[in-house]
Amino acid sequence: MNSAEIAPLPDKANSQHYELPPEFFELILGDYKKYSCCYWNPGDTTLVDAERSALEITCHRAQIEDGQRILELGCGWGALSLWMATNFPNAQITALSNSDSQRHYIESQAASAGLNNLKVTTCDINNYISESKYDRIVSIEMFEHLRNYRMMFERIASWLTPGGKLFIHIFTHTERPYTFCDEGPTDWMSRHFFTGGMMPSHALPLSFEEDLVAEKHWRWNGYHYHRTAESWLVNLDHNRSSALTILKRVYGKQQSRVWFQRWRIFFMACAELFAMKDGEPWGVSHYRFIGNNNTN
């Protein structure tokens, strides 16, 4: 991992997920457009409830406060950045995406909501160098696309203010990390949805405590991702006709139905993986790191 570049195949992530039009994900995701694991409290009955619960937990564990300078690495469709900009109006938020379509979507949502404390930047994470310092840096399901954690942590530490903190949310296996490699047609997930990705272990980010030191870490049972992916599948099936229209525009008529079924299988595979053995082996991990005093 130490000899690799930070993110091995960022363009693949774009083509497989992030350059599809936002209209497709509006059919699938909840109102907050959270394209990552949601948290299902006992009283949560809808995907929107679970999105909101996850966003509240993230901000609490990251110790987000009004007036902070905040950087989100890998902002997706803007769920967390827009939430922070709305609920912490005196915070200054920079959201980094590898996708032009995501940037345009978030900017339009921010403009519609009258938010002026959110800036979105499009950049390959391998090449991103921050000229600013931040009180908080947050990352939601981006580190699964990375390989060189040591280099990434070193860079992040240099972007933090004294006392600044990093919060990471990633899906993980309890014991061992493994990569997704496309070595043939049987590597279906790697080929179509997660080329160059990694399933980290829960302990993996804790193995690089040099420039950053872990203050605390948590784990969600895989049940939460199981139910999230099931909800995405239900929404996709419910909006089949509209989804096929969008996929036809992107992939062409012949491939539109193939890709519709691939998305269905993707959500089913994720739901079943995280449900295995009562959700214990695979789940979601949270970490809060603080900059080592020697780096600030």
The biggest beta sheet reads: 7 strands, mixed
Which stretches are low in confidence, meaning pLDDT under 50 for 5 or more residues running? none
Q: How does CATH name the architecture?
A: 3-Layer(aba) Sandwich
**H and E string:** HHHEHEHEEHEEHEEHHHE
Backbone CA Rg: 18 Å
Query: Domains counted in the coordinates: how many?
Result: 1
Class per helix and strand makeup: alpha/beta
Helix content: 40-55%
Q: What is the CATH fold-level name?
A: Rossmann fold
Report the CATH C-level class: Alpha Beta
CATH superfamily: Vaccinia Virus protein VP39
Specify the overall morphology. globular
How many alpha or pi helices? 10
The N- to C-terminal Cα distance equals 25 Å
Number of strands: 9
Mean of all residue-level pLDDT scores: 92
Output the strand order for the largest sheet.
3-2-1-4-5-9-8
Strand content: 15-25%
Description:
With 296 residues, the protein is an alpha/beta fold. The chain has a single domain (10-295), classed as Vaccinia Virus protein VP39 (Rossmann fold). Helices cover 40% and strands 20% of the residues. The chain contains ten helices and nine strands. It has helices at residues 10-18, 22-26, 47-61, 79-87, 100-113, 149-159, 188-192, 223-238, 240-251, 253-275; strands spanning 69-73, 92-97, 118-122, 134-140, 160-173, 178-179, 198-199, 212-220, 282-291. A seven-stranded mixed β-sheet has the order 3-2-1-4-5-9-8, sandwiched between helices. Helix 8 (223-238) packs antiparallel against helix 10 and helix 9 packs across helix 10. The longest helix is centred in the C-terminal third of the chain and has 23 residues, at 253-275.
